Amino acid sequence: xxxxxxxxxxxxxxxxxxxxxxxLSCAPAPSxxxxxxxxxxxSAPKTLRIAMxxxxxxxxxxxxxxxxxxxxxxxxxxxxxxxxxxxxxxKNVTARLAQKVPTVEDGxxxxxxxGGMEVTWKIRPDAKWHDGTPLTADDFAFGFQVVKDKDxxxxxxxxxxKISEVRALDPQxxxxxxxGQSVYGNVNGHDGVPAIPRHIFKxxxxxxxxxxxxxxxxxNTGWIGLGPFKLTSWTLxxxxxxxxxxxxxxxxxxxxxxxxxYIGDVNALVANVLSxxxxxxxxxxxxxxNQMVTLRQAWAGNNGGxxxxxxxxxxx
Length: 316
What we know:
- It is built from six helices and 13 strands.
- The strands form four sheets. Strands 3-12-11-10 form a four-stranded mixed β-sheet. The chain has a four-stranded antiparallel β-sheet with strand order 6-7-9-8.
- 17% of the residues lie in helices and 25% in strands.
- By secondary structure, the protein is α+β, with helices and mostly antiparallel strands.
- Strand 1 and strand 2 form a beta hairpin.
């Protein structure tokens, strides 16, 4: 019997986040090789069934094309896309698709006499888009060009307005030039300079049809990203399906397949969890305390799953 534990925040006055753990269907443990060197029987593929409210379906897995920057947008982003760095649970900036985090001591983060900065990033050579194309510095330079295009309806996020230039020095090296100083100079996460697959989007961008570019299905049902899971189908308003990306730079995910369902009614969402049709309610869902109490009471006698309340902040 296998268990998966994930968290979700509830935006209530008391600022409580709720962890929901659901029991997955039993599957045989992965078998190793036999003593004679032959392969043992293959383990059953692992499928994780996730659910959120319909209102949390995003316009795109890309943050700049999503409906907001809250938990739901982040859930989709980290499944289907990625960037150079991420904050770990201890709030330390950690390299993800970057070879390392730039530092002043190493000389790849320079504070200029005039008050600006230059930060040099090295991209992992094994980072690839979901179609197998290598990630390059040109993808970031193109991404910066897109988000700074005043003819496109893209809100500036993070510290992007403090950056004046992104330059590709070679396929694995890019230079980010800052107008001023920022403690986030060596941070490039979900709200940093974005990577956009230049080989896919630039031909469309070069046509000059900005409306067509913004409304292209390439941003949603045709999305090609950098994340641990590759989108295989998306029925808008209903569900998304994805498979583990075998060439993900940080290693293939241990879950083979994802199904993300969008359910309009919160009570229906809870009912699907209790019936076993849904395995996980992630941070992108927004249940309140009453629903959590219902789940706890239903699971109390059968170990069907767990909830954890984590005081987070005061929010109205």
